[in-house]
Amino acid sequence: MRLLRFSLAAMFLLFCAGPAAAQRYTATQQGEIIEIVDTTADMRVEVVPSMSNAWRIRVKGHDLVRTSATLEAFKANPGYNGMPLLAPFANRLDQTAFYANGQKYNFDLELGSVRGPIPSTGFVNGTKDWQLVEFKADDTGAWVICRLDFYKNPRFLQQWPFAHTITMTYKVSDGALEVRTRLDNMSAEPMPVVFGYHPIYELPDGTRNDWTVSVDAATHWIEIPQRLPTGETQPIEKFFNADRTAIQLKNYALIDDVFTGLIRDANGRATMKLMGGGKELQVSLGPKYGTVLLWSTPLTAAAPGGRGGAPGARGGGPGRAGGAAQAPAPSGPFPVDPAQGVRVAPSAVPLPEGATPSGKGFIAFEPMVAITNALNLAHTGVYKDLQSVAPGASWEESFWITTKGY
What we know:
Blueprint: H1 2-22, E1 25-30, E2 33-38, E3 43-48, E4 53-59, E5 62-63, H2 71-76, E6 85-86, E7 97-100, E8 103-106, E9 131-138, E10 141-148, H3 154-159, E11 164-173, E12 176-185, E13 191-193, E14 196-197, E15 212-215, E16 217-223, E17 229-235, H4 236-240, E18 247-248, E19 255-262, E20 270-276, E21 279-285, E22 291-296, E23 364-368, H5 374-379, E24 387-389, E25 394-404
Antiparallel strand pairs: 1-2, 2-3, 3-4, 4-5, 6-14, 7-8, 9-10, 10-11, 11-12, 12-25, 13-24, 15-18, 15-20, 16-17, 16-19, 19-22, 20-21, 21-25, 22-23
């Protein structure tokens, strides 16, 4: 009898524990937001499906990426907030045209979605044409999937004449956020793959001057001040004059540079780390991401009575995301003189004595499939690693965000 009671008690405990264990991951809709949660890690990601953008990414109440004060403000200006997708091309081009499959394609500047003389960041960020495909949770994680039918928008196709769809998946699992991107090429020609993302990371403690960065990349592409590669490369340590695993941000002014030769682990992932105050934020790039761009502006003094903290403008060129269209500019190409190449990271300029920083600062680890101006540099034979997706085929890859010490 005693054995029977013990068995019944054990079965009751297992029955009670089962539902609790199944609730580690949840996916719920709250108005315009889909929230996916890993309750054990206390990781919460709030996605706006119509934009396929993660408005907030938090661990234990701390924001990992910069966001707006309100959802309405975020929807109005997503360029420097959340998880902006830079597509169909990331970063800059040296002219208001690009080459693909040996053909030159000129942008229509009158549409306003592309600006010259140095186009940047593509033009899909901020669109609200994404469709919610699915949100769900099971014992492996919680996820939300959104799709953009790029081919259905004639203005998109006028600038980028490759019919395709973009499918994004946000998934939380085992304390990590995976951001997965799939391209399905519906056009009759190979489509170059040159997109990227532009998340801005920060730590809850300290400021940029207290943080250290580790970069799993071996090669720095020398750029002119307008942030266009000259074609020359050098070791990353020569650019920073520091160990690549211990780059102290306080030592540098503007950083806005691309790095390749990614150093990968047994899973093919290359990891970038932001460290400070006993906390660590890691961004790991899957094998098909061939480039990481680092962007960080120095701390500036706060205006008397003012509030700061917003990212500064990208150095030497037009803003990277958003902004009103400008008058048509010459088609270029923009002259890239190797003699202007910046070979050493600019040194920091100390704040005036007694000055208060305008904000805490940031670092953007931008996953990019290819380097800046990859389309046009590949056409000239300078860049050898351009990827493409064949007609009727798909391209798919992920990056992951994790934390330690939170």
